[in-house]
Design brief:
The complex is a heterodimer. By secondary structure, chain A is α+β, with helices and mostly antiparallel strands. Chain A has 16 helices and 17 strands. Classes of the chains: A alpha+beta, B mainly alpha.
Chain lengths: ~525, ~325
Amino acid sequence: MRGSRLFGAAAILCGLLAPGFASVAMTQQQGGTLRVTHRDNPPSASILEEATISTDMPFMAVFNNLVVFDPESPVNRLDRIVPDLATSWAWSDDNRTLTFQLHHNVTWHDGKPFTSADVKCTWDMLTGKTDSKLRKNPRKTWWFNIKDVATDGDDKVVFHLKDPQPSIMAMFASGFAPVYPCHVPANQMRTHPIGTGPFMFKEFKQNESIKLVRNPNYWKPGKPYLDAIEYTIIPNRATMVLAMVTGKFNLTFTGELTPQLMKDIQQQAPSLQCVMQSTNTQGNLLVNRERPPFDNPLIRKAMTLAIDRKAFSDILSQGAYPVGGANLPPPEGFWGWSKEYMETVPGYGADVEKSREEARKIMRSLGYGPDHLLPLKVTTRNIQDYRDAAVILIDHLKTIYIQAELEPIDTSVWYARLLRKDFSVAMNIQGTGTDDPDVQFFENYLCGSERNYTSYCNPELEKKFHEQSMMQDIDARRKLVWEIDKQLQEDGARPVVFFAEAGTCWWPRVHGIRIARNTIYNHWRFEDVWLDQ
Amino acid sequence: MFLYFLRRLGLMVFTLFGVSIAIFLLLRIAPGNIADILFDSAGMIDPAEKQKIISDLGLDQPLVIQYLHWLNGLVHGDFGYSYVSEKPVLQEVLPRIPITARLALLAILFAVCTGVPVGVVSAVRQNSAIDYVLRVFSLAALSMPAFWLGLLVLMAFVNWAGVLPIYDQAPDSLWAALLMFGVPAATVGLRSSALIMRLTRSSMLEVMRQDYIRTARSKGLSEPAVTFIHALRNAMLPVITTIGVETAFLFGGLVVTETVFNIPGVARFLVEAIRWRDYPMVQNLVMFIATVVVAVNLLVDLTYAIVDPRIRLGS
């Protein structure tokens, strides 16, 4: 297994780097329209207000960030961050002040000049300090540590933090953190976004298409190479695959192909270049610890021990999905446990039968057994990926005297049910925009956090959340992160069952596509992409 | 006739009124509302912002007030505002109507042009080899689900012609439009064609046994004249009813075909609007489809009198 994973990682790296080097050897050509499939209708065009790749991928090219993850690097990590709208950045001695020096002579697509006031505006809006409010602010917790944003002339902006937080740079570099213009109202950004990016918004037809055109005044000389990017919304996967195979499109929507579908598409069109990458989306088990009998930690522990994570991976992805804790495991992830460390965590050992025997022992001590099964409903979102995982979970729970039935919930009320904690046991799948422990811990495990669906609360561990967040030494921080993650799994806070992977394909005539192996969210600026015509 | 028309118009308004109440209540009974879905999909809620949308949409008003407000808007041509697309409903819906109309009309044209002649041939050659073949074919066409047939057609085009007849941009000429809509129209029209064929066959068989057909033959009329002038015209009444029902169905029920062939028409848009509980959009779209259905039914009833002069509407 480990060998195949390493081989897979090597293959990904080769796949990522080989076309890149080939592109360097060729001369970039100007012109052409990049035609991309899109999986569904984005809820809006405002990246700051949405929590989905459906918005992030098509509209990221309209904007710039202060900094970005190095597009040439196949892994997004703190030491691979490069300037974008900022020319440089500097930390104060106490690591509580972060100063960005900004590019001069950058203009918004409507001709107005970009200044430090726009940066201040954006983060004041994200932290709720202005009257100009976002309708939705799904990543407000990312910026919990920002005390104040100040400008120093037009070209300098200073972030004052409550505590040192090196990984705030990872959040600034995320595709979900573009700089918005002060002078454009939030509602216009949802329908007709204005940015400083390489492409300008042209049209968004609901359920039909999204069109971007080249920004002739882009501040990076000579870029972008493409004349336009057109996304066609094709919700039906079978139609999308056929459209891709016939060459109607140059690129598939990112992370849209399951491992099986990627094999099929490559069989039909062997010259397509395809890369399987982690979507940083995890399947996890939610147990409502406020509802009896699940308020008993022993039952929660037994349920955790019943899970056979390898079976999930084998059934759902023919063994392609990696197993890990709260953070994405290596080689794709940077903060997840090593294989050796993972085997020390209860429920993650190779001997599943031994774990289940321990679970049955717990259940028997609580009065359950073959003649007295614990009935429950496994609630899940009524879409295929969720249902498939929930059915496997039900099968696993049977082995420890739990008789579960599936309760599929319509997408329209799924999140409302979770937020109201109106479930006993639920199978959940959720994505993380950035491979960073701060995002994971503060968003999902903090006492009282909105997305802490299981109401897990451990004040002692929370101190360690803050401690790791402030650490400068990456190796030391990773060690602490592993310990925190182990504690979370031992407490059954939100047992992680699998991490999903998915594929992206493009034709060889497309050059400059850079796929990161630990995220699907951050590499869609398209300023270096060109078409061999 | 004129009085009949006026009476039917009155009935049409009454039916639409009933539909408006039904769709309004059904949408409110369905769990979740647009405010829930808009906010919860992002996993975060700002109660004040959510409350603002609830107030803007009038969702905090009693149901009767909400309904009357919508009805008042309809009567005055105000179709409301979509909080999902943040555009007026009319601006979103209007460009999709011609797309679905084209597809539906082409499909029904295909169904009639193939179903009626094939039904006649099958009836005239009753119990012959060709009759058996056509009946088996029609049964197969009726049994095939649209999504499966659609995918099969797409795969056949990819394998044999190397092209994919899906909608990826608006056609710029009549010929391009015919090409783009022709394949999906034939695919979706096949089921209607089979239905019309079977109905035409059974209706023709009944008519062909009537005394006046024997009289026509004994007068020495040619067989085509007997079949097409005397028999077919009299056999068409149930077929016209079916054509009406199918046309109405095709206007609102093309969701599978629109999805498989990626056509941005009304049906696919309606499903997406329901998913978001986009009340103004769903209510007005359903009302539009209901209007088409009752109008087509009225047209069918009026056609009866033209096809069969013995029918005196309103007498």
